[in-house]
From TrEMBL:
Residue ranges of every copy of the Major facilitator superfamily (MFS) profile domain listed in the record: 254-449
PANTHER family: SOLUTE CARRIER FAMILY 45 MEMBER 3 ISOFORM X1, SUGAR TRANSPORTER
SUPFAM superfamilies the UniProt entry points to: MFS general substrate transporter
UniProt keyword annotations, A-Z: Membrane, Transmembrane, Transmembrane helix, Transport
Gene3D superfamilies: MFS general substrate transporter like domains
Major localization class: membrane
The keyword Transmembrane is annotated on this UniProt entry: yes
Domain of life: Bacteria
Name of this protein: Maltose/moltooligosaccharide transporter
UniProt source species: Sediminitomix flava
Residues annotated as transmembrane: 16-36, 56-76, 88-105, 111-128, 161-182, 194-215, 258-280, 300-321, 333-352, 358-380, 392-415, 421-443
Amino acid sequence: MEKQTTMKATKPKLSFWQIWNLSFGFLGVQFGFALQNANVSRILSTLGADPHDLPIFWMIAPAIGLVVQPVVGAMSDRTWNKHFGRRGPFIFGGAIAATIGMFLMPNASAFTAYIPAIWFGALMLALMDGSFNVTFQPFRALVADMLPEEQINKGYSVQTFLINVGAVVGSALPFILTGIGIQNTAPEGQVPDSVIWSFYIGGTTLLVTVLWTVFSTKEYPPKEYAMYNGVDEAEVAKEEKKGFLELLKEMPTVMWQLAAVQFFSWFALFMMWVFSTSAVAQHVWGTSVDDTSSAAYNEAANWVGILFAGYGVFAALFSLVMDKIANKYGRKFTYAIALFAGGIGYVSMYFITDQNMLMASMLGIGIAWAAILAMPYAILSENLPSGAMGAYMGIFNLTVVIPQLLSGVVGRFLIGLFDKQAIFMLVTAGVCMFIASALVFIVKDKKKA
């Protein structure tokens, strides 16, 4: 931990709209991320991927995140640009790359003269998710950089609300476009227009909202940043120069404790993103395990987008009261109860065969999602050295990508064990969420209710 070498000045409180602007770009990033999560399995299946192999394709993205997250975190700590600030260059750069991926991925079949469509789709998935990873960590660190301690819970709650507004619209967009007459089916091997236009709209929204955050937020320059964190610039510079292994060795205990919770919660989320389309199509619409192109399959895929939008709505609503609950009852209690609700949501899907009733399952999943996006970062922000805030946030985000990688490996085995009956993957996700809820109680949060 760094030494407190100077008097720590109190960061000025920000207005609600200043806090809003900090995370407004995250709305666009999550718009794109939600489109990816709800539609990539659909796109890859359309391009020829076997359901048994979907986890392998999905592993590309977290594998890139494994490298990108800590590197971007460390680099953003050491960056200062008078126009774009400390975190802004990475948020902006990641958004441009993600937008390119979103415009190209649904058009993979147009590049078959140069590369097989399935591999082009996989490359665009890697570009999109890698770029999303570039933006995630700086947005997390930006809230910690700019807000005083008493506004941290509020800052991450507002961020969670905006994330879920983006997720709701992104998840529902193919369904909405289908409703206004855009074609939702296509010849075998081609992506429907409803999905293609959703990705165009998502990419544009991503870029516009990120530009808003970058140009409306003025980050603290190095001298003010050091003053507000109670350290001199030399001490900050010393912290910034530490290597990955040294930072890992000095990692606060609370990070290891939160990593255990993160492992099981993100393992569960990855299962949901990969297998929900197949699970709903098979379990509710009654499609065969190998069906990836029928009208019933595409109808189920659109409904999964609505379900994902549903859990986004519930997450957004819960985020409006989450900081108040956390302030009154403690962040650990709020986090644990939310994850337990998520476990109930996943397991309940096994017992439901009516498409509308599945929305009840999304209530629990949405509550869990809101807490996952806010509580660990709120806990973490008060336990990290200021000079390495970005680096440690980047390292912490490995607790997001590593579970996804392992979930991809294990998921490929499990789906075979379950004879491709994807609903059992969601039950497995529920069990993982229950474990995550129990592990919250090992976390030592220095701030009590």
